[in-house]
What does this fold into?
Amino acid sequence: MAGKKDAKPNLTPAERVALARHAGRPGTAEFIDALFDDFFEMKGDRLCGEDGSVLGGVAMFHGAPVTVIGHRKGRNLDEHLRYHFGMPSPEGYRKAGRLMAQAEKFQRPVITFIDTPGAYPGLEAEAHGQGDAIARSLARMSRLRVPVISVITGEGGSGGALALAMGNSVLMLENAVYSVLSPEGFAAVLWKDASRSAEASEVMKLTAADLLEMGVIDEIIEEPAGGAHEHPKAVFKKLDSAISRHLQLYEDMNGSALSAHRCKKFAAMGKRYLTNLDIEQDL
Amino acid sequence: MANPLNAFEKRKQALQSLKQLRRPNPDKQKTCPACQATIEKKKLMSTFYVCPHCGHYLTLGAKRRVRLTVDKDSFKELGGGIVSTDPLDFPEYQEKVRAAAEKTKIHEAVLTGVGRIDGIPAAVGVLDSRFLMGSMGVAVGDKIARLIEYADRRDLPLIIFSASGGARMQEGILSLMQMAKTAAAVEQFSENGGLFISVLTHPTTGGVTASFASLGDVILAEPGALIGFAGPRVIEQTLGEKLPEGFQSAEFMLEHGFLDAIVERKDLKKALSQLLKLHGYRSQAPSRSITNFLPGGKDRSKEQNFTDRTAARDADRSADADADADSAVSADASDDRFIAKQIDPEPDLK
It folds into this structure.
């Protein structure tokens, strides 16, 4: 139970899901505006298309250049539709990969913002290799020789979220959620009933506190009572200092150490939930 | 009891017992899910579990796949006891895993090990779609990553047959993280020069498609296999329309540039063996290979391997009349491709 001084009610996972999806919640575009200077957006995957549901470019962070990449849901209905509510197509992930390669070339850190229900499930997305695009993004991120800081800001849905979230540090806003599938999808797959999403939210362990406990994220960024949209400036400030602090952790690491750090971190995830049966024991 | 003298009755009895013998025995027969024809199970091994009537590819369990792919008695399982401990305490999950294990005779949805293909040693992984849809949880991710690291240490080629619905829901976010883990392992293996042949079988979707399975140096598929990221039902729900015929089939993926070839099941072993040879891997039969330069014993480190190979290459070169051009090139790991690979005779899981 919350103490007397605690103005924040104890939210249920389902309530956090609602907050993470709140229309007024700051998105990647707002975080870029607030935290960085001189952002220059870069478009196109240099193969066949441009997907605006991934927003990326170069900017200054405390006087040093960084590459910034994140999911973009859009600020109004028009943009929501154009950006598929932040669900990228393969072109989006390939653009992200191109920008990451550039970050490596010019030796600047990569900051990613995660806010997507998942990768876009469409005809064209499949024909253009959604699986290939995500797999290659993961492979590339594992080998990047510059620091990568990932921030789960809203919805972290499935492979479409993870594809940009392989950071040396993974930070998460207090009311953001991060899961193997949306609670609706999860309920539909396991119980053939998407309406049981609140129940799914409970069992999935998708809140920041759960994920910190499981070792999936490194730090929780506190939000004001009522959610990030109630007082965005407070969130921007906290996130700004957290990103600076985490970047400093990697200042003295060389390229291969950074890549190794990232691989080791993700290789360890879930290890503590493994056991080795006596193999001789017959089935 | 019929009159034994009645020849007519006798004949009738004999006929009946014959009928009894001929009566279909459900344990020895299988019904093709596509054409409903009855197939003798005995015959299935020789048709590679393809329906002899309509050509439908029957589901192949991991153990059968291994039997059809690697040389007889050459397979040794690695990490067969690795299982997860139910990280979400998910209701009824452990019972489901146990039931799947009973059915498939493996403890998790992937079977990993080493075996020989036409004499060529390889690290082999096979996902079993009968085990919770071949889904990847913590144990599957770990076994695959271990297999890749094993292949890396021993300089073995890596072959993984995928058949999976994607990430395992019952292990939540940790299943998702196995995508990062396995993709990173493949990338490291690739950087060290290892060959990865990814074989996509029906169905390969979700988090498996979006991680290691799409990262093969060579990607093959069986005819008609469903291959994609989002499941067909999810796409139909999103779009509110029926999917076109053949969408997300192996043929569709080939046409869109995501496969090297579609190979019939009966030809797969031959194709794998051909590809292994084309990448410089040789069978362990005695030959003028680096075998002579290698000390016996197992678990040589990567560095030793490299030194050994360098020595072998230098020896090869000195014997080569046309060594001049080569000698200008400094020792380079990429040259290793031209030297036959070999592994320890008795691999074990570290």
